[in-house]
Design a protein that fits this description.
This protein has 106 residues and is mainly β. The chain has 1 helix and 8 strands, in the order ββββαββββ. The strands form 2 sheets. Strands 1-8-3-6 form a 4-stranded antiparallel sheet, with no helix packed on it. The protein has a 4-stranded antiparallel sheet with strand order 2-7-4-5. It is elongated and about 70 Å long. The N and C termini lie far apart (41 Å).
């Protein structure tokens, strides 16, 4: 899935909804202030994981994270621009097909 922009405000902003097929997710804080993320919609700025301006975070199921769950974000004041990418099996590149050609002149 391509990168997409999400504007995060002082009210809980859903970054992505539940998707059991999601294997990973990546976020980059393209704004000027910290963005807090959480899988719990309540108390995001108080208890969420902070992503400083210019920094990012990744969630990988293979590393014990739970990217399939709904993810929320919020800022303490103003707004922030974040970039988001989700990884599902459908978004993985197809393997290349390799054909072995016979040796010798055509």
């Amino acid at each position: 899935m391509p990168w997409r922009a999400v504007t995060v405000t002082t009210t809980p902003t859903m970054i992505w909804g539940y998707n059991r097929k999601r294997r990973s997710g990546a976020l980059f804080n393209n704004g000027a202030q910290a963005v807090f993320i959480s899988q719990n919609q309540a108390a995001i700025t108080a208890e969420g994981f902070p992503i400083p301006a210019g920094a990012g975070a990744t969630l990988h199921r293979e590393e014990g994270d739970q990217p399939e769950l709904t993810l929320w974000a919020q800022v303490a004041s103003g707004t922030a621009d974040i970039r988001v990418q989700e990884g599902t099996p459908e978004t993985r590149p197809e393997p290349l097909e390799v054909k072995v050609l016979p040796e010798g002149p055509p």
